[in-house]
Design brief:
The model has no long low-confidence stretch (mean pLDDT 95). The protein has helices at residues 47-54, 79-82, 110-113, 148-151, 156-171, 184-196, 207-215, 229-240, 254-269, 313-320, 322-334, 356-363, and strands spanning 4-13, 18-28, 35-44, 63-65, 72-76, 93-94, 99-106, 119-122, 131-135, 139-141, 176-179, 200-204, 220-223, 244-247, 250-252, 283-287, 292-296, 306-310, 346-348, 371-373. A hairpin with a 4-residue loop joins strand 1 and strand 2. It is of the alpha/beta class.
């Protein structure tokens, strides 16, 4: 094989306090013995991608110059945000955690050669590009007939949902709470918990989201916008026995409200025995998202047996080890059209990903508006 060229999206934080998004032409060298080259045909814009892609830039004030593959978008970054981006300054960064495509080249190893022509999904970063060279071992081979767009989100959301359930089992919790529960991930977690018989409390922020989850068969749905939120949450926690929550919101009062409601249920179960330190039931909230970047506010009322911490898929996979990871991936591959199916509102090109109006749409992270990039769509 010979060198090939690939157009890919780059995100650059500049010293002058601005974000620059552009398309870069890069050389893809022939694959080594254990490597393959994937022609990327579908890669999602996940919330976890937006932080790297947009770097907190004010896209509403963006300016665009150039045309076609020479298009460049620039947007200002507030000084307070720049302080957290010092390590990124001057380094053009490839974007896109995961994606799927067809293997068009392979190294000499038997494992690599076996993938030629196969549809695979991979989770190695830099997927917002036309070609991606990866190790054969990093490819998830999909069943025959699966299209790249069906397998584009085979890692981040499916493994996060499975990781949440696995964490609950390992830590001895019998039920879960999930916030922003009508999201693509939330809908996936609902299907998974229903399939595995795990009680799940879904916290949403609108009646529209309540109806989405009801249509999916969700049993316990609580709307945080309602005045009865605390009472409704306590009722759902009583019904499920959930003592573990995964919070996508991050900032504000919600994590504390969940802990307090869990304590109210636990203390009520042993109301005949007063303890000034609260119940002995451990209550845990893991924050895994930052839909609200404000500080986390915890009001007293959770007793003295509780925890709050961060949860990240990468750290979870490292902790559980390769055997568990392989087991979870195998389940994703076998259920990619059912439990772990994803739906997209729009497929865009690399060039469209630089359009301020399109960025405003996918940057909203609105329920039901998940975008997919096909890097090989034509660019003028």
């Amino acid at each position: 094989m010979v060198d090939q060229t690939s157009l890919g999206l780059r995100s650059l934080v500049k010293q002058d306090g601005s974000l620059e998004l552009s398309l870069a032409q890069v050389t893809v060298s022939p694959p080594k013995n254990d490597e393959v080259i994937v022609r990327v045909e579908a890669t999602p814009i996940n919330p976890s991608d937006l932080g790297l892609l947009l770097a907190g830039g004010d896209v509403s004030s963006a300016k665009v110059s150039g045309k076609g593959s020479q298009t460049v978008l620039t947007a200002p970054i507030a000084p307070v945000v720049m302080r957290a981006l010092v390590a990124r300054i001057g380094k053009p960064m490839p974007v896109g955690l995961e994606g799927a495509g067809v293997v068009i080249g392979a190294g000499a190893s038997r494992e690599a050669q076996a993938l030629i022509g196969k549809t695979v999904s991979t989770f190695v970063g830099g997927m917002y590009g036309q070609l991606r060279k990866v190790r054969a071992a990093d490819c998830l081979v999909l069943p025959a007939g699966i299209k790249p767009e069906e397998a584009a989100s085979a890692f981040v959301n499916p493994l996060t949902a499975l990781g949440m359930v696995e964490t609950a089992r390992r830590e001895g919790h019998k039920g879960l709470v999930h916030t922003a529960a009508a999201s693509n991930l939330g809908q996936m977690l609902n299907r998974l918990c229903q399939a595995d018989g795990i009680p799940l409390v879904n916290i949403v922020r609108s009646e529209e989201q309540v109806q989405i989850l009801k249509s999916l068969g969700a049993k316990h749905i609580v709307n945080s916008a309602q005045a009865s939120f605390r009472d409704d949450l306590i009722s759902a926690l009583k019904a499920t026995g959930a003592t573990l929550a995964f919070d996508a919101i991050g900032g504000g009062k919600l994590a504390g409200q969940i802990l307090n409601a869990m304590e109210a249920v636990a203390a009520g179960a042993s109301a005949d025995t007063y303890n000034m330190y609260g119940s002995s039931v451990h209550k845990q909230v893991y924050v895994y998202g930052t839909l609200d970047p404000s500080p986390i506010e915890l009001a007293r009322g959770s007793g003295m047996v509780w925890g709050i911490g961060g949860w990240l898929l990468f750290h979870f996979l490292t902790k559980v080890g390769p055997e568990v990871e392989a087991r979870l991936k195998a389940r994703v591959a076998s259920e990619i059209r059912t439990t772990f199916a994803s739906r997209y509102s729009r497929t865009i090109s690399l060039l469209e990903a630089l359009d301020p109006d399109v960025i405003a749409a996918y940057g909203r992270r609105a329920t039901g508006e998940k975008f997919l990039i096909n890097p090989n769509l034509a660019i003028e």
